[in-house]
UniProtKB/TrEMBL annotation:
The lineage of its organism: Bacteria, Bacillati, Bacillota, Bacilli, Lactobacillales. This is 4-hydroxythreonine-4-phosphate dehydrogenase. Belongs to the PdxA family. PdxA2 subfamily. Its cofactor is a divalent metal cation. Keywords: Metal-binding, NAD, Oxidoreductase. The keyword Metal-binding applies. It comes from the Bacteria. InterPro entries: PdxA_fam (IPR005255).
Length: 342
């Protein structure tokens, strides 16, 4: 099987995206698994490489993915020329950074839709900066859905054995409750089952979390499970999907992390995000820094593959060369696996 071309965005150039990209590209094992392509700004990349000449990395500017060298020691880059480092500040929210991050994402989406690359991986952008630049989206997921014309999609987070998809994400908690409908829950169960199969899991075990404490205690604490969630689970079972639910969320994630289930359908943003980030984000109080920041964010239901780091731009750490590239490496790994099985 030929190595897949993976298009990787630089992220907001004022954040840690450029740094962790360079660190990932500086490992020969990346080139053993895929053909990595960076989409960003040459001025930003050159800025960092001049600060770290010990890396001895060359930049190969290309217009088309087919022209890349894809050899260790060379970073193949599609330069969009948005940022001029002469008047750009690292670590600060800016409209330039927000516009640049959006343009990088738009470009990799176009390349993937044109089948010039096999998958896309995104570094973090800053929502405030992007919206200030005139690109009004809640985040990466919504950009991908809009630019690919996708109506039914969901976010999946993954770290080790634990995979979680969401019925709703960037909405208020009140609206999240209203979005837990039979139709939406069933759609997400189907997407979750398909995603696991695309990862090579032949008969995925899907678990569906309840919305209310103890799944509502038969209507005592709410009727969403009775009226919406459980009927969706039954409909999915009738379609042949190996699914259980609704299940109390306070114990479900521990079971899934232990291997009882392959994927969990969470009802809202924090229900799914907190257990993933509790596992993947490890803070060292003595050092005053993150010991580990790992995990992957994947948008499911799209006509193209998108995986992402599961952390933000970390403007306060940008430029100090101390951030970890582990989440980016994990995202690239997921993108490769999905592209090989799609």
């Amino acid at each position: 099987m030929s190595k897949k071309i993976i298009g990787i965005t630089m992220g907001d150039p004022a954040g840690i995206g450029p740094e962790i990209s360079i660190k990932a590209f500086n490992k020969p094992e990346l080139y053993e698994r895929c053909q990595p392509l960076l989409v960003g700004d040459a001025s930003v990349l050159t800025y960092y490489l001049k600060k770290h000449p010990e890396l001895n990395l060359a930049v190969n500017l290309i217009q088309n993915p087919k022209d890349g060298k894809y050899e260790y020691g060379t970073i193949d880059l599609i330069d969009l020329g948005v940022v001029d480092m002469a008047d750009f500040e690292i670590g600060q929210v800016s409209t330039t950074g927000g516009d640049a991050a959006f343009q990088y994402v738009k470009k990799v989406i176009e390349l993937a839709l044109a089948k010039e690359i096999d998958a896309t991986v995104t570094n973090p952008l800053n929502k405030e900066a992007m919206n200030a630049a005139g690109h009004h989206y809640a985040g990466h997921t919504e950009i991908y859905a809009d630019l690919t014309g996708t109506d039914k999609y969901t976010m999946m987070l993954a770290d080790g054995n634990l995979r979680v998809v969401h019925v709703s994400t960037h909405v208020s908690l009140r609206e999240a409750c209203d979005r837990a409908t039979k139709e939406r829950v069933l759609d997400v169960i189907r997407i979750a089952d398909k995603a696991c199969k695309n990862l090579g899991i032949k008969n995925p075990r899907v678990a569906v979390a309840g919305l209310n404490p103890h799944c509502g205690e038969n209507g005592l604490f709410g009727r969403e499970e009775i009226e919406q969630i459980n009927p969706a689970v039954k409909a999915a079972k009738d379609e042949g999907i190996n699914v259980e639910g609704s299940l109390p969320a306070d114990t479900l994630f521990s079971k899934a992390n232990g291997g009882m289930y392959d994927i969990v359908v969470a009802m809202y943003h924090d229900q799914g995000h907190i257990p993933l980030k509790l596992l993947g984000f490890v803070y060292d109080q003595e050092k005053g820094s993150w010991q580990a920041v790992q995990g992957v964010n994947i948008t499911l239901g799209l006509p193209i593959i998108r995986a992402s780091v599961d952390h933000g731009t970390a403007f306060d750490q940008a430029g100090n060369w101390m951030t970890s590239e582990l989440s980016l490496e994990n995202a690239i790994d997921y993108a490769i696996r999905l592209s090989e099985n799609s």
